[in-house]
Amino acid sequence: MKTFAELELLEPLQRALAEEKYETPTPIQAQTIPAALDGRDILGCAQTGTGKTAAFALPILDHLGDPNRKAPPNRPFVLVLAPTRELAIQIGESFATYGRHLRLRQVLVYGGVSQLHQVRALSRGAHVLVATPGRLLDLMNQGYITLDMLEIFVLDEADRMLDMGFLPDLRRIISKLPKNRQSLFFSATMPPKIMDLSRSLLHNPVSVNVTPETTSVERIEQRVLFVERSGKRDLLRQILSADDVDRALVFTKTKRGANLLSEQLLKSGFKSAAIHGNKSQGARQRALEAFRRKTVQVLVATDVAARGIDIDGITHVVNYDLPIEPESYVHRIGRTGRAGAEGIALSFCSASERNELRAIERFIGQRVPPAADQPQPTAPEPEKSSSGGRRDASFRRPAASRPAAATRPATEAAEGEGQSKPRRRRRKPRARARQTS
């Protein structure tokens, strides 16, 4: 495998890579960069954390930096489309890092904030535009962005775009692209709709696939912990108290659940923050930065953070709630074990989540083994249904934690001791009286 120094990149890019101590390309970088430098379309399939941002950013910067042209107002040369604000921001940071010695201008366009500063930046000219679909279409409709001079188009995390319902927006954007362009298409999975979209976008592409067929991440230790719903919080506290938990990302199913769990962890003495779609952009960035700096140990998130959160050193991912879509499981656990590091992914499974667990195991093509040394949370009694039965009947508390016979009601403690018959004889007259009334 070639080193970065051997790749035919401009000297300012080589200098930036040396400053970042980049030596050997990852597999997707080694396969993508030479083909992209030759102007070929790319169809890339790779899990998150494999280095694909550099795989497309470096050849784009090389293309723009020679010659170093002036960017016209509102007419970018490159468009990179990302599904979330967080991913767009990180892509922008990567372009800034690798292109620090080039005189190129980039603009970020995403929702959740005022468009005023974005419109002003576009009017000054942008070589590279990194955008989310909704805000991009909005500004195009207002006449602030025209794509007639576009030379390179990148669609990142395409499957996530479809999961978020962006397919109609994507088709409208693609219809505005000039026919004579280079396109780079990346997705962690390749379901039929993604393949159809790639065929409409790419011309004779070079296929780059560094994703194992199981779609699971081999370096991540995966375990499932069977627990009643009412015992999840105590179990999480025990896990987070372990010495090997340096930085943990905890996923919940709902925004309200993320807020509530983060507040409960704070009360228990854990430095915690929540991130989800209802948080303002500023609040989300502050939470991410605190998590990156380790002033926050636990980040509680909904699936908005399952993609695009590129933070090294996340030792544990905890699925407090199992995701409904099995694909989300892969993206969630991919937040740990990044850049060749090992990681641990723990999933809590209550009786009502058994179907979700089976769907995940079918999707990844393997069984998620149960934790051998699962802590036993001191949870309250399971909720009872209207008929008096246990809802989580398959998750009974250990016998040692059940009430002793001396503390049970008299009717339960007296069974088999000759006291139940007199009770039934005393109840019979009352039953007859009710029937004749």
UniProtKB/TrEMBL annotation:
Belongs to the DEAD box helicase family. It catalyses: ATP + H2O = ADP + phosphate + H(+). Residues 421-437 have a biased composition (Basic residues). SUPFAM superfamilies: P-loop containing nucleoside triphosphate hydrolases. One of its GO terms (molecular function) is ATP hydrolysis activity. Its EC number is 3.6.4.13. Residues 2-30 form the DEAD-box RNA helicase Q domain. It comes from Lignipirellula cremea. Residues 219-386 form the Helicase C-terminal domain. GO terms for cellular component: cytosol. This is DEAD-box ATP-dependent RNA helicase RhpA. Residues 367-437 are annotated as: Disordered. Keywords: ATP-binding, Cytoplasm, Helicase, Hydrolase, Nucleotide-binding. The keyword ATP-binding applies. The lineage of its organism: Bacteria, Pseudomonadati, Planctomycetota, Planctomycetia, Pirellulales. Residues 381-395 have a biased composition (Basic and acidic residues). Residues 396-413 have a biased composition (Low complexity). Gene3D superfamilies: P-loop containing nucleotide triphosphate hydrolases. Residues 33-208 form the Helicase ATP-binding domain. GO terms for biological process: response to temperature stimulus; ribosome assembly. A motif (Q motif) lies at residues 2-30.
